[in-house]
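Q: I have 286 residues here and want to know how they pack in 3D. Can you give me a structure?
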Amino acid sequence: MGNTKFDSRSVGLDIGLSFSRWLTGRENLHYGIWDGLDVCAGNVGAAQEAYTAKLFELLPDGPLRILDIGGGAGETAKKLVALGHDVEIVVPSAFLAERCRANAPTAVVHEAMFEDAELSGLFDLCLFSESYQYIPLDQGIPKCLTLLKPNGHILIADCFRSEGFSPDKVQATVGGGHPIQKFHAFLADQPLDLLSSEDITQSVAPSIDVEQGLFNVVGYGMGRVDEQMAVQRPKTRSVVHWIIRRLLSPRKRARLDQRLNQQTRTAAHFSANNTYLLLKLQVRAA
């Protein structure tokens, strides 16, 4: 066998998308809007649909030529195509590109980082749905400006680090993105008009509680197995624990324990450290 590197990211995405498809019938990976909904796994699909509906309320009159930047598994593009829009998607991995082609077969898919993607023609709209945070601050909007028609639009729905963001050296701080003060300072220097800005942090934050609940169920199951092994297979358990210590650093083990067995990743924790913005921008008239 060759020395092909194990692609843990694709495996994780595959598991995540499979779970999402089983739970909701869709392959959405984005947060949901929970206004008026009970916070439970059974409402994940409804919350995600509410998120998409709110996002689509900001679309300019169409039909539009849309660039979906970081388009996930293509679910949003599929809905945009169904509304009559011409859509191109940029995704950074072969796995996501494959899912985009399956879910939105009429969309053009570019497998590349947005910063490196070779794109032609002009677009009416550049869309960042929870993808803006993964692009260097000084590259995302400037590249969009080279791709947009006069008076074109940019929609950003994403998480930003608030002024109170407080990272932990060991455990993961939920959320992230660009520091919001730096983002606003950068945005002020761009030839864009801010048409609307809405803070929807409280509406999306319950997504974290649902995610944490899922991980706690997995952690409980693993804990029960470990308890039984300690009684019935102590030597095997010792070997398993030795392997885990060899494979994972203390920091990674602490973060895994946080994910599976603790309740530190909560909606309140998310809201204290992050600001989730829904922004509509337009290229300023010359």
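Q: Anything worth noting?
A: The two ends are 59 Å apart (CA to CA). The CA atoms of residues 85 and 254 lie 46 Å apart.
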